[in-house]
Design a protein that fits this description.
The complex is a heterodimer of chains A (about 525) and B (about 180).
Chain A: H1 2-20, E1 21-32, E2 35-44, E3 47-51, H2 52-58, E4 62-66, E5 69-74, E6 77-82, E7 87-90, E8 93-96, E9 102-104, E10 107-110, H3 112-123, E11 125-130, E12 135-140, E13 149-155, E14 158-165, E15 171-176, E16 179-184, E17 194-196, E18 202-208, E19 211-216, E20 221-228, E21 232-240, E22 266-271, H4 288-307, E23 310-313, H5 323-332, E24 337-344, E25 354-359, H6 366-379, H7 382-386, H8 389-421, E26 426-432, E27 444-451, H9 455-461, H10 464-488, E28 505-506
Parallel strand pairs in A: 1-12, 22-23, 22-24, 23-28, 24-27, 25-26
Antiparallel strand pairs in A: 1-2, 2-3, 3-10, 4-5, 5-6, 6-7, 7-8, 9-10, 11-12, 13-14, 14-21, 15-16, 16-19, 17-18, 18-19, 20-21, 25-27
Helix pairs in contact in A: 4-10, 6-8, 8-10
Chain B: H1 2-18, E1 24-26, E2 33-43, E3 49-59, H2 62-75, E4 91-97, E5 102-108, H3 110-114, H4 120-137, E6 143-148, E7 151-152
Parallel strand pairs in B: 5-6
Antiparallel strand pairs in B: 2-3, 4-5, 6-7
Helix pairs in contact in B: 2-4
The chains are: A alpha+beta (about 525), B alpha+beta (about 180).
Chain lengths: ~525, ~180
């Protein structure tokens, strides 16, 4: 038996030597603007593997680590690879290689794909290898064509034109009489030459070179334009009788601009989840999305009545609204306060109580800041657009500090009211990087009303009385926050409400793109 | 035994065929493994994250040790009373350690890929159990980035932003 084991071990060792064997080839030259560098190469199964140390160094970067795991850095772009897997990573994108990296005499060697994947974002250049002259070359990235997808949908009197792209692109927007022109800086691969729409505001969309032209039904049709990420979209909200937008900027969706006046005049209520995203499910089948919508729909008229404010719901039915769109709706409508309503769930038996969150500083990292800064830029005026990017970032940091401070107050007040009036266990005020709170340009909080995973609470959540009681508690909290906010800001007597003449409850457009 | 000898001979023949390519190099990657005590973080009865010590055989190379540690974490606590933090079909596809101290964890499994219906508490516990476990056991790791099926994702279940790297959330930690 022992002999069999030894023989098996010998066989595995022999197989390993076959798999890991590689042959040395003569070095190749890497030609860069900084000079020409020799790069060691080994071959396995006729495939070249390039020395990570030589090639990454030649590209101006560094390699760290030891077998079996390494990292590579060029500028601000990080990559990592291991000798046990064909899967490597560059920034947050997985790159699958034709073969796993190999280590020869302590040096890692990889197929060309990894170096191409890291040099592209780091150097904005493509790396190519010509076997004939054994040369690696860097070349500027070709101006790749973009392929937009267009959808036009009319919701509650507003036409929404959504132009979706595979990646962010540079563009400008201009209006001339009854036509909006979106001019891309890259060539466009048009999905169609011209297409007509049965829409009250959009007559047709056509492509002319790198221009996308949106022909309107009348010259007085205008509106707002903004960008959304993941996926990248340019959105135009169009209606009659609105001041035309300026290039790349957003006009408010309504003629009134409550945010320009002091105080809390527009409140955004976000019923969590919706559509296919049901949220958590109670032990007897209640969906979080249904209970949050029921509470929000009861809260909305209470707020309008009590505070005489404009109330925006991020959804008014069982629609799917992305997390980005929820904050975008709040920003677009110049909300002064954002409250997201959720129900909690835990596997731990007996988990109960309410808690309120505001954004953790953790979430205000550079990515979030930049994403929110982009949105902020869209709602800002021409002066802000003219300001330098650095100045905008500084202003955005300061604004975020203010928002966070106010968000903390809001969460505190909501939680105190929940504790006082709801009879639910108080789990306190907490901070977390909740996606729906990232990028809100207003004080924002997320309340976890109770645990839907608790059978008793689930039963309560089904009752109209409990839903009304929770809505009333949240309304009282917002009323108290508003009073405290006014007092802190010396706003004393409430001013005449802006939305008094308009319908008090405004249902925002819920985007349900119709792909043409 | 005779069959084994025949197989061994065949392998040696194959190896010698390969050997005709000269000069031949053989990799000398060393992957030393040793038993190490790690703290895995799971939900406590107070709905916070608390450590559970476990001895694991891990590669001495830190980056190579991440995958087995996260796999062990996702497998769940040895205490049956402690709820699993992740859906049972969750898998760890790969892990990476970037030079800037960011660990990247690529998760997979049908539930996470198709949409996990969970409350924000469950999602916070799951997300930060990985962040806490990696940062607590590997001093060079400062932040953790989570991918799903090799792709950047907004959230695991509709609440916690994972489209950025995360550092530990001390308020989620149970008092030692």
């Amino acid at each position: 038996m022992k002999r069999v084991k030894v023989a098996s071990a010998l066989m595995v060792a022999a197989v390993s030597s076959i798999v890991w064997a590689a042959t040395a080839a003569s070095p190749v030259n890497l030609i860069t603007p900084a000079g020409t560098f020799p790069v060691r190469v080994v071959e396995e199964n006729a495939q070249p593997f390039f020395s990570a140390e030589d090639l990454i160094k030649g590209l101006g970067g560094t390699v760290a680590g030891t077998a079996p795991a390494y990292s590579a850095t060029i500028g601000s772009v990080e990559g990592a690879f291991g000798t046990d897997s064909k899967l490597t990573i560059v920034s947050d994108t997985m790159v699958e290689l034709a073969s796993a990296p190999i280590v020869v005499d302590g040096t890692p060697f990889l197929p060309l794909q990894f170096f191409q994947a890291i040099s592209r974002p780091a150097l904005r250049q493509t790396l190519s290898f010509t076997a004939a002259d054994r040369t690696l070359r860097l070349q500027p990235i070709a101006n790749e064509p973009i392929a937009p997808k267009i959808s036009v949908v009319n919701l509650q009197g507003m036409s929404k034109v959504v132009i979706q792209l595979a990646a962010a692109a540079d563009y400008s927007i201009a209006k001339d009489a009854a036509t909006y022109t979106i001019r891309f800086k890259a060539p466009v691969q048009a999905p169609f030459a011209e297409q007509g729409y049965d829409d009250p505001h959009v007559a047709r969309v056509l492509f002319l070179g790198s221009d996308l032209k949106i022909q309107l039904t009348a010259p007085d049709v205008a509106g707002s334009a903004y960008r959304l990420d993941n996926p990248f979209r340019i959105v135009l909200d169009l209606q009659k009788g609105v001041a035309p937008i300026q290039e790349g900027l957003v006009a408010p969706p309504r003629s009134e601009q409550p945010r320009d006046l002091p105080g809390i005049r527009t409140i955004v209520i976000d019923p969590g989840h919706g559509g296919k995203d049901v949220g958590a499910t109670g032990p007897n089948g209640l969906f979080e999305k249904d209970a949050t919508l029921a509470i929000a729909q009861k809260l909305s008229p209470m707020l309008s009545r009590k505070l005489n404010v404009r109330v925006i719901l991020t959804r008014t039915d069982d629609s799917a609204v992305s997390l980005d769109e929820r904050t975008s709706i709040g920003n677009q409508y110049k909300g002064d306060l954002f409250l997201s309503i959720h129900l909690n769930a835990a596997k731990t038996r007996g988990a109960r109580g309410s808690e309120t969150y505001f954004l953790s500083l953790e979430a205000s990292d550079e990515l979030a800041r930049k994403a929110a800064e982009r949105e902020n830029q869209q709602v800002a005026g021409p002066a802000a657009a003219a300001a330098s990017s650095d100045l905008r970032l500084i202003l955005w940091d300061l604004a975020q500090q203010d928002y966070l401070k106010e968000s903390s107050h809001l969460a505190e007040v909501v939680q105190v009211e929940m504790d006082r009036a709801s009879g639910l266990q108080n789990r306190g005020v907490k901070q977390a990087p909740f996606k729906v709170l990232v990028g809100a340009t207003m004080p924002a909080a997320l309340v976890e009303v109770c645990f839907i995973s608790n059978e008793e609470d689930e039963l309560k959540l089904r009752s109209q009385e409990f839903q009304t009681a929770i809505a009333a508690t949240l309304a009282s909290a917002i009323e108290r926050y508003k009073k405290e906010y006014d007092a802190r800001n010396g706003l004393g007597a409430p001013a005449a409400p802006v939305a008094a003449k308009a319908a008090p409850v405004v249902a925002p457009p819920v985007v349900t793109p119709v792909t043409q | 035994m005779r069959v084994l000898c025949l197989m061994l001979s065949a392998v040696c023949v194959l190896a010698s065929c390969r050997g005709r390519e000269t000069p031949q190099l053989t990799t000398t990657a060393v992957n030393r493994v040793s038993v190490r005590s790690v703290n895995l973080f799971f939900e406590t009865p107070q709905l916070l994250l608390g450590p559970e010590q476990r001895n694991l055989s891990l590669p001495e190379n830190e980056a190579g040790a991440l995958t087995p540690v996260v796999r062990e974490l996702i497998r769940g606590s040895v205490n049956a009373a402690v709820p699993r933090s992740f859906p049972p079909d969750s898998i760890v596809r790969a892990t990476y350690l970037m030079a800037n101290g960011t660990a990247v964890v690529d998760l997979g499994g049908a539930t996470l890929v198709n949409g996990w219906s969970a409350g924000s508490h469950e999602e916070l516990i799951a997300t930060f159990s990985i962040v806490q476990t990696l940062t607590a056991n590997f001093p060079s790791i400062k932040r953790v980035r989570i991918l799903v099926n090799g792709q950047a994702a907004e959230t695991l279940a509709g609440h916690v932003a994972i489209d950025r790297s995360l550092s530990p959330l001390p308020s989620l930690l149970a008092n030692p």
